[in-house]
Amino acid sequence: MNNPQPWWLTWPVAEVAATILPCFSYKPHQDQRIAMYSVLNWFKTGSISSKGYTVSPLSGPFEHPDFRAIAEAIQVLEHAGMLMRTFGGEWSNLGLTRLGMHAFQTNTVRQHLGLGDAPPSA
């Protein structure tokens, strides 16, 4: 029986980053944990929601392959200046920077990440 890995585990990290940036456009900022659950739910169902997961992205991003892929993609977006992280209290919040908003609105995320015009086929 062949059980191929999902696209977010096989694509280059920058490709995953370009794909998830729109997940951060719905709110000015969101708790990192909720954002990671929402992205994972979107990967699996096509719906952005943080409900239904029992594995914590913060307790296991290095052990859980799905959360690891999301954390790596978030890091790429941060390093590209399109996503920023703020710290307050126990957890961090994530939100688009002005560059991230502009890249999202003008559909230039891929160019800002140095990628070609089309993503790999899933």
Describe the structure.
By secondary structure, the protein is an alpha+beta fold. It has a single domain (10-109), classed as Winged helix-like DNA-binding domain superfamily/Winged helix DNA-binding domain (Arc Repressor Mutant, subunit A). The protein is 43% helix and 11% strand. It has 6 helices and 3 strands. The protein has helices spanning 7-10, 13-20, 32-45, 65-79, 98-105, 109-112, and strands spanning 30-31, 83-88, 91-96. It has a 3-stranded antiparallel sheet with strand order 1-3-2. A hairpin with a 2-residue loop joins strand 2 and strand 3. Helix 2 (13-20) crosses helix 4. The longest helix has 15 residues, at 65-79. The radius of gyration is 14 Å and the shape is globular. The mean pLDDT is 84.
Topology:
Layout: H1 7-10, H2 13-20, E1 30-31, H3 32-45, H4 65-79, E2 83-88, E3 91-96, H5 98-105, H6 109-112
Antiparallel strand pairs: 1-3, 2-3
Helix pairs in contact: 2-4, 3-4
